[in-house]
Design goal:
- The complex is a heterodimer of chains A (about 190) and B (about 290).
- Chain A is α/β, with parallel strands linked by helices and about 190 residues long.
- In chain A, about 25% of the residues lie in helices and about 30% in strands.
- The termini of chain A are close together.
- By secondary structure, chain B is of the alpha/beta class.
- Chain B is about 45% helix and about 15% strand.
- Chain B has 13 helices and nine strands.
- In chain B, helix 2 packs parallel to helix 4.
- The N and C termini of chain B lie far apart (about 40 Å).
- Classes of the chains: A alpha/beta (about 190), B alpha/beta (about 290).
- Chains A and B meet through helix 1, helix 3 and strand 7 of A and strand 1, helix 1 and helix 12 of B.
Chain lengths: ~190, ~290
């Protein structure tokens, strides 16, 4: 079984490295053909507008939606990945995969100068707290009934799960703590 | 505890730009075209390098008003340039809330001996380099991202290729050096020993390395990616061409699918005229931007 990392743009190398450290084989996904080989998918951080356009021009967007609706494979979106999985983007007309019943605010904490690191307590992950790296990060402003809210920062939802989809505002792939990736890998059927 | 302005946050933003295209823009309209084409960031300027070259005189940081208008126009990160060593221009950009500062040889240097102490800033810096020593000196000063210099404003890829090959070759050599030779190598390169050790161990730069200076076509962008760049800067190449919208989009696709010639062929079709460009030997000695930086 392989976990794919969407590699159109952004920090995909770091996710592949995390998977390796978890003892999980990971593969790069740039085309529809590569989607057929995977049993889990990570959508990395990057620029959501750029990744969204590249997904669209390669028809990967339709293919991912189809794959999730038919196989329910686990999907993990970090930062830009959270934005791309959301049903709605606050105040913007941006096309997304729309697979998760959340509304996301982009650059919610401000510009790069407001980027920060903070310790988070996470439901479902044993203490100690997890160091969250937030870079021009989004957060969830509204979540549907089926959404489990797993972590907050200043009352804002920064980690959440609905069904087999996990999203984070921050970048677990930039640190060395494997716990969130391990949590994701446990979601596999 | 909440921490801001850490090196991990600075280098982390560059990590998020990988595999992407950063485009030079001089108006909010151009910035929107760049964002719409899939740029991962824009560089806000008063003039693109080709026009700086043509205009002559002293090139300085852009008018804060232009930078602010561009910041308001797009949701992607906005970068801007300061003169080498001009730390007050950098303070101004930080006050404006810019996302990344380029201490750039494209502008006229303000200091002929020293660069900015970039660790003093919360905003991350990107700097140009022609070889490994220069890259590591800039990282030593606090740069969180490197771009090989190429020769800006020429539309000629040859210098970008030279600099990328130089950096990658030097890393390859370093990887195979016995440990006892590293200190002498550090002395030769004029680079901090600890960073040299890190490069030797990892087999790559400690930060993201983009290519810049001369990229004008989708194939140029893919060439730099295949040579080992983490992403590309395109300056004059887009808005000095006949169909910027189409060319910008094509360069974005080629940068992502750099190892897929069929896609590069497809997106390269019917782009209209590329920027005219300059043969490097026609540039007077002393007018080459790449020689600025110490």
């Amino acid at each position: 079984m392989k976990v794919g990392v969407l590699a159109l743009q952004g920090a995909f190398r770091e996710h592949l490295e995390m998977l390796k450290q978890c003892g999980q084989e990971g593969i790069v996904v740039k085309t529809k053909a590569e989607l057929k080989q995977i049993s889990g998918l990570i959508i990395p951080g990057g620029e959501s507008t750029a990744i969204g356009k590249l997904m669209n021009s390669s028809q990967l967007d339709e293919a991912i939606i189809h794959l999730y609706n038919h196989t329910n494979i686990p999907i993990f979106g970090t930062c830009a990945g959270m934005i791309l999985l959301a049903k709605k983007i606050k105040g913007q007309e941006q096309s997304t995969l729309g697979l998760m019943d959340i509304t996301v605010q982009r650059n919610a904490f401000g510009r790069q100068i407001e980027s920060f690191e903070a310790d988070l307590d996470i439901t479902g992950i044993t203490p100690p707290s997890f160091k969250g790296i937030f870079i021009r990060a989004p957060y969830i402003t509204e979540a549907g009934e089926g959404v489990q809210k797993l972590a907050y920062f200043n009352q804002n939802i920064v980690l959440a799960r609905e069904g087999n989809i996990l999203v984070s505002s921050f970048h677990p792939e930039l640190g060395s703590d494997l716990r969130i990736h391990q949590y994701f890998l446990r979601m596999k059927k | 505890m909440v921490e801001k302005g850490t090196y991990r946050l600075k280098a982390g933003l560059a990590d998020m730009l990988k595999g992407g295209v950063i485009m030079d823009v001089v108006t909010p309209e151009q910035a929107k075209i760049a964002e719409e084409a899939g740029a991962v960031a824009v560089m806000a300027l008063e003039r693109v390098p080709a026009d700086i070259r043509a205009a002559g005189g002293v090139a300085r940081m852009a008018d804060p008003r232009i930078i602010k208008e561009i910041m308001e126009a797009v949701s992607i990160p906005v970068m801007a340039k300061v003169r080498i060593g001009h730390f007050v221009e950098a303070q101004v950009l930080e006050a404006l809330g810019i996302d990344y500062i380029d201490e750039s040889e494209v502008l006229t240097p303000a200091d002929e001996k020293y660069h900015i102490d970039k660790r003093n800033f919360k905003v991350p810096f990107v700097c140009g380099a022609r070889d490994l020593g220069e890259a590591l000196r800039r990282i030593g000063e606090g740069a969180a991202m490197i771009r090989t210099k190429g020769e800006a404003g020429t539309g000629n890829i040859v210098e970008a290729v030279r600099h990328m090959r130089q950096v990658i070759d030097e890393i390859r050599i370093l990887k195979n050096l016995p440990k006892e030779e590293l200190m002498t190598k550090a002395k030769e390169l004029g680079a901090p020993f600890e960073l040299l050790e890190e490069v030797a161990e990892k087999g790559r730069l400690p930060v993201v390395n983009f290519a810049a200076g001369g990229i004008a076509t989708p194939a140029d962008a893919a060439l730099m990616m295949q040579l080992g760049a983490d992403g590309v800067f395109v300056g004059s190449g887009i808005f000095k061409s006949s169909d910027p919208q189409k060319r910008a989009k094509a360069i974005v696709e080629a940068t992502t699918h750099y190892n897929n010639p069929e896609i590069i062929a497809q997106v390269s079709e019917g782009l209209g005229e590329a920027m005219k460009g300059i043969e490097i030997s026609r540039i007077e000695v002393g007018a080459r931007m790449q020689d600025r930086g110490w």
